[in-house]
Input
Amino acid sequence: MSSLARSSIKNGTTNLYIRFDGDITFELDSGLAIRVPNDQYVVPFVTIDRNSSRIFNESQREVLIASLADQPATLGRYFLTAAYLMVNQDAGTFSIWQANPSKSTDIVAMTNKSSATRCDNSASPARSLSPEESKMSRMSDGALAGVIVGVIVFVIMLGLGVFFSLQRRKRHTRPVSPPGEILGPKEMHGTPSQMQVAPLIPSDCAPEFCGPLEELHIPRQELEGWGNPEIMHEIDGPEQPAEAP
Amino acid sequence: METAVEGSEVGIENLISSSLGGTDTLEFATDEPLEAFPIGIPRQRWDRGYTSLHALGVGSNSTYLRALVDANRIAAKVWSIFWGRMWGANSLMDGSIVFGGYDRAKVIGRNLTQNLDFGSAGCWTGMRLNIRDIRVNPRSGSDKSLFPPNTVLPVCLVPQRQLLLEAPADIYSNFENATLTSNIGLSFGLHWGAHLFDTGTEYV
Output
């Protein structure tokens, strides 16, 4: 009596509670097997309300498999809960791995043929371009112009420095250098030998692959530094002992 | 994704003409924003209601990937995705998308790499796979195959599709046979086309 009553509750249809709690495994070409956990394909019924909130029906479950007639079979987003996908449009390939459901990250950057041959270093480190670096790569034309200007000014300064050093040798007993001879202290520091001109770097090569652009900046700053306050202090330095009683 | 092909989202070819369009500043996480980036806002039911999420296009003509490459933000048109884990109370996990590379911490073992094929032998997403077998893994007992012998099922990998699998009806009925379940109809919620089951305590 009681079992008849139960089976007739739903209009004579037998409804089975979905008790299957196993996973499902897809075996692909090459033998790669992707195993999707049960809770990623047997899920509570959910719908999206007009106000974009989720509405659940806990009395129902959905198995996220659909039946098709003629349309192409598909693997959808829930396949990617167990598989990791990379699409490389430049190489024209896609790659699938078994996914490691991890919260840690280890980003590997990919290059294509044109970006790899443009620069020497084709082994991409696991890093990302920072805004400063990308600005530097675009400044390379400006930096090149700066190098040319720097070379010209350096040659002029070198000539003047040599000239003034010859002048100074005649008056080395004077305790104080006239403030006007700003070029002199640079020569005393031996700066002409420090002021190397960095080798020209190809303008279309990003610095993170082909070497720092910082070397190009140093000559420009040092050349600008003949108004540098530090060097002014050096000029004032010898005066202080004269002020002390 | 690619334009209208059998099996793809309905209405793609009308998307441009039927949507609202404009430009906006697009910014992801810690990146510098992309200024004046073109944005389209589909009107309701452009895909007859099947597609309910907004889309970031990463197909072969992707505006976004091209903008990242031109801004020297990425070195190649590459994108990778892990969907994360949903719905289970204990297993929730954020997914991730990487542009310009992939996340090595989220992969295990060797990959399967194939050429993208958008032709008639391929898929509108370019990603066609051949499935040699589908097995259910009961907690007790041995695995059960859903495939008839000597069957290979060609599938298209469609990352935005709302289900796990859309397969011929006979493979789905093998699933119910193997798991001793019987559905009560189809779902028309977020998981459009999924099979519905009761969770009543009574069973036969």
In short: Helices of chain B lie at 15-18, 63-70, 169-179.
